[in-house]
Structure to design on (343 residues):
């Protein structure tokens, strides 16, 4: 539909330009019969030849020869076409001047060769304009195709990153549930129920480019509560999220990796600890901050391999290039991550 609309716009533009070119000489003349004859001889007939030269190049010669790098043949054909039209125009002009305008002025005025030289230059102008217009259109079309191809590549990469995130997320969640089965079967049932809700969100609501921030917050709360089931004995989890962010849209699943990372680094088997999450919305900027104690991990601990954070950084670059910042502060005791996204 857009292609048809664009073609109609181009046809209308061409039609309008030629109407103006044909109208101006008449409007600038005195309107008398002799003036109209001069407009016919000196403007309208040459304009018809200009149109033939322009569209001969626009529709045939440029595509067939110039764009296929047959430059010499293109130049030769245009020289022949211009020469023929100059001669034909000159003969028509001579005949009409003798027949319609004042026969008594025959042989007066500037030499005939001068008019031929002027005609050669003026008849070459449509060639230049057709090349300029056709080249510009080709460049615009090429740029549009390249942009479309790049967008398709980026969308494909984003989809791949999303599919990469899903098994990583469920792998970690199932590990957490597995760790609870022997210790607390009842809590394991609750955890499986919570995981089913998270899976539903993954499968049915994250296919969109953007989701309501409220829905994303609900997902994060459910995931935090799922994690708390495993660590409720020695982990104090505090979180503060906006209560009403329904009108704010954001790409899905941007914060879950940061939550995973906080539990990964902030939990110890022998020490009590506190993990906090905070989100604010300020002037169309979403700011998410996580803070936890930094417990060193042994090489045998495979609760996370860095896939989540690398995935997140790549997605942020693709979705919010130059519109986000992510700072990670790692100290002896604290691990603080701050992600700010300008929507």
């Amino acid at each position: 539909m857009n292609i048809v609309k664009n073609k109609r716009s181009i046809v209308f533009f061409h039609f309008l330009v030629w109407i103006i070119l044909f109208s101006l000489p008449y409007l600038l003349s005195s309107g008398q019969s002799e003036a109209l004859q001069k407009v016919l001889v000196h403007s309208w007939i040459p304009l018809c030849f200009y149109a033939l030269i322009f569209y001969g190049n626009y529709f045939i010669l440029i595509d067939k020869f110039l764009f296929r790098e047959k430059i010499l043949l293109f130049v030769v054909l245009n020289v022949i076409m211009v020469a023929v039209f100059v001669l034909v125009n000159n003969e028509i002009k001579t005949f009409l001047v003798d027949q319609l305008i004042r026969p008594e002025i025959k042989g007066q005025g500037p030499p005939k060769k001068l008019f031929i030289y002027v005609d050669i230059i003026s008849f070459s102008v449509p060639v230049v304009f057709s090349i300029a217009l056709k080249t510009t259109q080709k460049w615009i079309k090429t740029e549009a195709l390249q942009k479309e191809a790049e967008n398709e590549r980026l969308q494909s990469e984003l989809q791949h990153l999303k599919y990469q995130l899903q098994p990583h997320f469920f792998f970690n969640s199932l590990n957490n549930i597995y760790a609870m089965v022997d210790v607390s079967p009842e809590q394991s049932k609750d955890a499986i129920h919570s995981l089913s809700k998270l899976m539903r969100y993954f499968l049915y609501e994250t296919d969109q480019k953007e989701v309501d921030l409220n829905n994303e917050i609900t997902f994060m709360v459910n995931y935090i509560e799922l994690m708390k089931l495993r660590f409720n004995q020695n982990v104090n989890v505090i979180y503060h999220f906006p209560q009403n962010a329904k009108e704010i849209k954001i790409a899905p699943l941007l914060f879950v990796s940061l939550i995973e990372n906080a539990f990964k680094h902030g939990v110890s088997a022998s020490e009590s600890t506190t993990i906090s999450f905070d989100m604010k919305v300020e002037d169309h900027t979403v700011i998410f901050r996580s803070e936890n104690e930094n417990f060193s991990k042994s090489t045998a601990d495979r609760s996370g391999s860095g896939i989540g954070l690398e995935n997140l950084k790549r997605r942020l670059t693709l979705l919010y290039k130059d519109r986000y910042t992510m700072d990670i502060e790692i100290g002896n005791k604290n691990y603080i991550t701050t992600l700010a996204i300008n929507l």
In short: Residues 54 and 126 are 5 Å apart (CA to CA). The mean pLDDT is 81. Helices lie at 2-28, 33-66, 71-99, 112-181, 185-204, 213-231, 256-266, 307-319. DSSP finds eight helices and seven strands in the chain.
